[in-house]
Design a protein that fits this description.
single chain, 82 residues, alpha+beta, four-stranded antiparallel beta sheet, 2 helices
Amino acid sequence: MEQSVLEIRDLSLNLGNKKILDRLNLSLWKNHVHAIVGTNGAGKSTLVSTIMGLSGYENFEGDILFEGESIKSKRLDERARM
């Protein structure tokens, strides 16, 4: 089985007192087209901001793996280089 390039495991994020992402799981593979769609306020931008490690989106539960390596503790610039 092909290893995913990006894998989200049980990702949860609260902003203020509101749960925006709730135990999200997602795998994205090389040479495949993927789309994330949803209504306004569904959490698409929040998901991307969390993956990128933008300020205000660092305190999440779960894990984000890039090519099998956790990037949860990596800074924004380290994630960008990856």
